Amino acid sequence: MLPTETVYGLAANGLDTIAVQKIFNLKGRPATNPVILHVSNIGEASKYAYFDEKAKKLADQYWPGPLTLLLRKKDVVPEITTAGLSTVGVRSPSNDVFQDMLACLKFPLAAPSANPSNRTSPTSPHQVLEMFGNSCPPIFDDGPTDLGIESTILNLTSKLPIILRFGHISQLEIEKCLDQPVSTLIDSHNLNSKLHKSPGMSKVHYAPKTFSVLHETIDACMEYKNFTPNDLIISHSSRDIKRFQDLPCKAIAFSTNGGLEEIARCMYRKLHDADKAKFNQLHLCLNDSDDDLALAINDRIRRACAQKT
Ligand code: TXA
Ligand code: MG
Model pTM? Predict the structure, then answer.
């Protein structure tokens, strides 16, 4: 278990079928959901993926950092890593511990988020340990992660580059760097092409164990009629909390002042803590900012509230 700047990862040799199988087993991850390869730099990445001009531009600007590029894979990458797809996700994380580890190795590290499949990603070693218990492999404790939510995933193998997962690197930043429009899954909502899908992007993902109710706005949350004393509202800013004081439930916030970076950094920890406290239900509101990072935050909030059917 290794820290990255986004979330902790469950790392193993991405070129070794048996090692990658162990990741799938421990996470309970379906074999149809590929894992991404972590590398130290562009030179390493191009051993495993066909790096074109666009990929190079983006990696020059944003690596090491929270941007995963989906590219055509080279034969050396085993099928299990990419779940049989012809593309591979590559990213160079900026965490020093992870980079030092890569510098000592002669292979890339496959590293999905270090949570059992469909649970909230961990941003601290405690969360990793709590989720895996006795079957937890050694964890490198680097304290809480710097950024919080997972990397932006950009598919560069489609005609128009498409963002498959929102993260800290925004659509606008990518468009500026490539000097061309970039689409998102929201734009291509009705497209059914395989290229526009990320196998791990099922609706039920990143979910707390506690049943979680989605409210479009704080006002909508205030109007909810069925709060119990053991319900918990998690709003975005502690400044909102006084608005909830007359409701018959508890309320906390993801951040002190509503700053999006603090929300991203703290949200998974607050969701893990809420799970541990065994509330009856959680209530989460969408963030009303039109900043790009709010898209990533709201994406995770929607997924946290998407219950298994
Ligand atoms: O920030 C992150 O990206 C973290 C840290 C540990 O690096 N990693 C992470 O990995 O979030 P994971 O496996 O939890 O999420 C990667 C997502 C999955 O939803 C997977 O389906 C998608 O990337 N993915 C990986 N390879 C893909 C491919 N070839 N085609 C489409 N989607 C892919
Ligand atoms: Mg994950």
Answer: 0.94
